[in-house]
Design goal:
mainly alpha, 2 domains, 0% strand, flat, sequence-specific DNA binding
């Protein structure tokens, strides 16, 4: 893995650079028009919202069914788990500490 120190705010950008290196052509998916898709983290917030619409609806449905509708807690739990799945334990620890500091 990568042992570079990265500020939490810059972490997503840092991760996206790794992703581009990992995906040899830089783009995994191709849009309907045959254009390569931009990396999720490089999109505008509006485009990100559009791209993740289906997932957001699934998360919302799960949260309503299993967690009393608490979408925020589901998402805040997912992020550190995703980091740990990639062995990014220090980043996950930082994130959890930051989230506890901010309260609910």
């Amino acid at each position: 893995g990568c042992h570079e120190e990265v500020l939490l705010g810059k972490y997503c950008h840092h991760l996206s650079i790794h992703k581009e290196v990992e995906d040899k052509d830089g783009y995994v998916y191709v849009n309907k028009g045959g254009r390569p898709r931009q990396h999720l983290l490089s999109l505008t917030r509006r485009a990100q919202k559009h791209r993740l619409r289906e997932l957001k609806l699934q998360v919302k449905a799960f949260a309503e069914k299993e967690e009393g509708g608490d979408v925020k807690s589901v998402c805040l739990t997912l992020f550190p788990l995703a980091l740990r799945a990639r062995n990014e334990h220090r980043q996950a620890d930082e994130l959890e500490a930051m989230m506890q500091g901010k309260g609910s």
